[in-house]
Amino acid sequence: MTYAVIETGGKQYLVSPKEKLAIEKVTGKPGENVTFDKVLLVADGDKVNIGKPYLSSKVVGKVVSQGKGEKLVVFKYRAKSRYRRKYGHRQQETIVQIESIS
Q1: CA separation for the pair 4, 14 (Å, rounded)
Q2: pLDDT digit string (tens) for 85-100?
Q3: Which of 94, 96, 97, 89 is closest to 25 using CA atoms?
Q4: Strand partners, 97
Q5: Structural domain total, the chain
Q6: Angle CA(62)–CA(64)–CA(67) in degrees, nearest 5?
Q7: How far apart are the C-alpha atoms of 93 and 24, rounded to whole Å?
Q8: 3-state helix, strand, coil in the chain (%, to 5)
Q9: What secondary structure letter does DSSP report for 82?
Q10: How large a percentage of the chain has pLDDT more than 70?
Q11: 30 membership: H or E segment, kind and range
Q12: Could you tell me whether strands 33-36 and 39-44 are parallel, antiparallel, or unpaired per DSSP bridges?
């Protein structure tokens, strides 16, 4: 089984071909290809390559959709001072299907 660890949007993801994942927003319309060049690790069966810090490998994915994630509720409260603030946040995200690891 082939898999890789990529870095995008300040986070690291373990990916394998034909897998869908939600990542921080990247530019691209649905159907376009996106290339991830910050590859930290590639494993193919027993053969494992680890970058210092990155490898020259590339991971290609296809944008499935652009949208927003689930709503997070932020509530600030200070005891004994009648201070309460409630607001929400929905992070922009991109759903990507991994096509290949090379």
Answers
A1: 6
A2: 999 999 999 999 999 9
A3: 94
A4: 20, 62
A5: 1
A6: 130
A7: 5
A8: 0, 70, 30
A9: T
A10: 100
A11: none
A12: unpaired
pLDDT at 13 over 90: yes
Apex CA 47: angle with CA 60 and CA 58, to 5°? Answer: 15
Cβ-contact 23, 98 below 8 angstroms: no
Predicted confidence band of residue 1 (pLDDT cuts 50, 70, 90): confident
Domain interval for residue 70: 2-101
- The answer to whether 62 touches 56, Cβ cutoff 8 Å, is no
pLDDT tens for 43-88 read 999 999 999 999 999 999 999 999 999 999 999 999 999 999 999 9
Q: Are 37 and 101 in contact (CB under 8 A)?
A: no
Task: Of 81, 75, 3, give the one whose Cα is nearest residue 42.
Answer: 3
